[in-house]
Amino acid sequence: MSKSGSKDRLFSDKAEETAQQEQAIQRKVDQADTYKFRKKQKPDAMQAGSRTYPTSFAKQHLAKPGREAALNPAPMFEAPDYKGSGKLENKVALITGGDSGIGRSVAVLYAREGADIAIVYLNEHEDAEETKRAVEKEGRRCLVIAGDVAEADFCEHAVAKIMEVFGQLDILVNNAAFQEHVQDFEDLTEAHFDRTLKTNLYGYFHMAKAVVPYMKPGSAIVMTGSVTGIEGNKHLLDYSMTKGGIHAFTRSLSANLMELGIRVNAVAPGPVWTPLNPADKEADQIAEFGSDTAMKRAAQPEEIAPAYVFLAAPCCSSYITGEILPIIGGYKGG
Question: Is 216 exposed, middle or buried (0-12, 13-18, 19+ CB in 10 A)?
Fold first, then answer.
């Protein structure tokens, strides 16, 4: 056999050995997969917090705008293991949609960090009073103001009232939202489309416009975006569009306000247990709400709210502006 032929045979034999090694590895993995599949066919929801969070919910459908008091189970907003350290001491924060959901939890944590709170809401008076009680329990003042953020006059009125009561305004959390699904594109009416844009885009614009003249260097604006503004959602065409718009507004406004020393950032949550979704989805869909995330469950408001503290507090995020922070329960990785 020639020298070249001898090398061919050598390499061929080694390749055969490699293939056999690969097959041996494959057999071991196949055996492990079979065992694990039989042992646990459905992964449990991930629990990585200081307390256990729900993985399923009672079937329910709420009338808009949705009352937190009617939700079963009640959203978890108190964050009992979150310890304040004066990050927002003596600041004043305005939170739209602050009566419930993420807004309520943000109000509580801001108060725990030393801020006085003003919440703006539509007509969920019972929820607003509960938020006020929760803020006052933290030892801070809370002003509640009912109105429609889609109206520029109301936003100016609310800000004027806050300045009259507190004399300053350091943080704006633009959080109020309208969400209603459609199964087919042709079901999205102009009235529906208009309502979504008025609340989710005009509302953010009007409130920011009203607030900025009173803000000083070191102030912050935090917007509530959404994973739908990143990934889209075939049944939430208008809502997804507005959330993508909020992300773009965040980045653009951050550049515009840079010279004033005002930071602007956004949080883009995935599914969160708030009145927003049970006031949109059918009751059957709510039972498994959030189960399609990587963590196999929806977030609770108290799991999202600390990000709003981080983005508002100069001691935490003084070099962060124009960013969109997704909090979506992880990535499936294929």
Answer: exposed
Return the beta strands (E) in 2-132 as ranges.
Answer: 92-96, 116-121
Average pLDDT rounded to a whole number, residues 210-224: 98
Give the C-alpha distances (Å, rounded to integers) separating 274 from 70, 98, 278: 11, 12, 8
Render pLDDT for 247-303 as a digit per residue (tens, 0 to 9). Answer: 999 999 999 999 999 999 999 999 998 876 666 556 667 767 777 888 888 889 999
In this structure, what CATH number is given to the domain that contains residue 176? Answer: 3.40.50.720
Best CA proximity match to 62, nearest among 238, 299, 281: 281
**Token pair recorded at residue 174:** 């633009």
DSSP letter for 89, please.
T
pLDDT score, position 198: 95
In a domain, 248, yes or no: yes
**Which residues form the catalytic set?**
239
pTM listed for this prediction: 0.85
Tell whether 196 is covered by a domain.
Answer: yes
Beta bridge partners of 223: 174, 266
CA distance 45 to 39: 16
- Number of Cβ within a 10 Å radius of residue 203: 27
Position 334 pLDDT exceeds 70: no
Percent helix, strand, coil in the chain, to 5, is 45, 10, 40
Length of the chain equals 334
- Longest Cα–Cα distance of the chain, Å, equals 99
* For residue 233, pLDDT beyond 60: yes
Q: What are phi and psi of 4, to 5 degrees?
A: -65, -40
How many domains does one find in the chain? 1
Q: CB–CB of 84/315 below 8 Å?
A: no
Residue 255 domain boundaries: 86-327
The secondary structure of 204-243 as a DSSP string is HHHHHHHHGGG--TT-EEEEE--THHHH--TT-HHHHHHH
